[in-house]
Design a protein that fits this description.
Its cofactor is Mg(2+). Pathway: Cofactor biosynthesis; molybdopterin biosynthesis. The chain is an alpha+beta fold. Helix content is 18%, strand content 30%. Strands 7-4-6-5-9-8 form a six-stranded mixed beta sheet, with no helix packed on it. Helix 1 packs parallel to helix 6 and helix 4 packs across helix 5.
């Protein structure tokens, strides 16, 4: 008979597992949400040349006097490769982003000049040296650190890296994941149910949660409730994935084969059964570098155990912060639980308080669909009063 372990022990066991993070070189534009594995440095000065920040006229501040007209002898659109020099006594028509030639150092906006016969008179009494010019290297200098290892790459970082000329980055690879869904009763949605059948909800739900984490190397296997089939698909999954997630078949019923299949596949059992609700029969094992989670089949237990136990393990492969964001907040309405287990309850957190939702039973996803957090109630306490502080774990958001 398995000893029920505490939530803390279970989390520690998972947390202590050594993980070999894989480094992958990818195009910068494919690195959204990934963690940078190495420091990055600017390969050149950016901007790579002195650059106009306005549409206007470039001139030499030193050689110009108020009210003196300047003859416009050149035109320089953005991207133009020349001219490389303009006489100091002249002006050049210049556009935003274009390179300043030698001989000029200041740009006046086109709104602040008078143009006649290709001569300009500057009507900007406050203009000073270097106005409207972005200096070479003012964003970043060649060799300067651009982004530190450990940074999570967001849209702005991706833009910044492209802007300094980097096309590839080394990131920590997301793990490959196999989802094995067990159950004779399961039927894919979109077809009518026969008596006794149940619509299969967990594979799409887990794929969505994985995709939301940026994990897309996912294979899904469907298994009938028999030992041989479960062993074969677990072997297939072990040949492919870093992390294997089984759903259902992990309890004590005559048709629950996950624990036996894991044993047959030489997966070392690290725990089975936790003092918690939902998800009491959660199984966790390991085969060399691979992790195997057996999630209790009720869909709400599947998702709760996924966020509480699988999510942190998956995140560590990618070098990410491991725990769900945790807060202590007051309860909006009192709540009584009926046993000495830790409860993870579907909750809704807003305006600095949390409401424990209805429909907490683990066969029900209805309130999970409205939840934005899991409320953690500890083993000892039975009744939690209004305004009592409780721990909540925020569910990652999307959209
Ligand atoms: N005698 C006992 N029976 C049960 C116990 C127990 O301690 N003693 N624990 C209960 C708890 S708690 C849970 S949780 C379940 C876990 O059992 P399994 O992991 O073996 O899950 P299944 O029996 O395969 O399925 C449970 C339930 O969920 C439905 N299900 C399963 N997979 C899906 C899916 N992909 N999509 C939608 N629904 C799914 C399944 O039809 C069952 O209704 O055991 C209790 N029993
Ligand atoms: O613990 Mo089970 O996960 O109640 O359904």
């Amino acid at each position: 008979m398995d000893r029920l372990i505490s939530v803390e022990e279970a989390k520690n066991i998972i947390n202590e597992q050594q993980i070999k993070k894989k480094i992958l070189r990818v195009p910068v534009q494919d690195a959204l949400g990934k963690v940078l594995a190495t420091d990055l440095y600017a390969p050149i000065d950016i901007p790579a040349f002195h650059q106009s920040s306005m549409d206007g006229y470039a001139f030499s501040f030193k050689y110009w006097k108020q009210e003196q007209s300047l003859s416009v002898t050149h035109e320089i659109p953005a991207g133009s490769k020349g001219p490389l020099r303009v006489p100091e006594t002249n002006a050049a028509r210049i556009f935003t982003g274009a390179a300043l030639p030698l001989g000029v150092d200041t740009v006046v906006k086109q709104e602040l000049i008078e143009l006649k016969d290709n001569q300009i008179v500057i009507k900007d009494p406050s203009i000073s040296l270097g106005d409207n010019v972005r200096l070479k290297g003012s964003e970043i200098k060649e060799g300067e650190q651009a982004v530190a290892a450990g940074t999570v790459l967001g849209p702005a970082t991706i833009g910044f890296l492209c802007g300094i000329g980097l096309s590839e980055v080394d990131i920590f690879a997301s793990p490959s994941v196999a989802v094995i869904v067990t159950g004779d009763e399961l039927k894919q949605p979109g077809t009518p149910l026969a008596h006794g059948e149940v619509y299969e909800a967990s594979s799409a739900m887990l794929s969505a949660a994985l995709l939301q984490m940026g994990i897309n190397r996912v294979k899904t296997y469907y298994v009938k409730d028999n030992l041989d089939d479960t062993i074969i698909q677990l072997q297939n999954a072990l040949a492919f994935a870093d992390v294997i997630i089984l759903t259902g078949g992990v309890s004590v019923g005559d048709y629950d084969f996950v624990v036996r299949a894991a044993e047959a596949c030489e997966v070392e059992k690290l725990f089975h059964k936790i003092k918690q609700r939902p998800g009491k029969p959660l199984f966790f094992g390991r085969k060399s570098e691979q992790m195997v989670f057996g999630l209790p089949g009720n869909p709400s237990s599947v998702l709760t155990c996924f966020y509480e136990y699988v999510w942190p393990a998956l995140r560590s492969f990618g070098g990410h912060e491991k725990q769900l964001k945790t807060l202590k907040v007051p309860l909006r309405i009192s709540y009584t639980k009926n046993n000495q287990l830790i409860h993870f309850l579907k909750g809704y957190y807003d305006n600095d308080k949390v409401t424990i939702l209805h429909a907490q039973e683990s066969y029900r996803l209805r309130s999970f669909a409205m939840a934005n957090c899991l409320v953690v109630l500890n083993e000892e306490m039975k009744t939690y009063l209004e305004e009592e502080l409780v721990e909540i774990h925020l569910i990652p958001t999307y959209g």
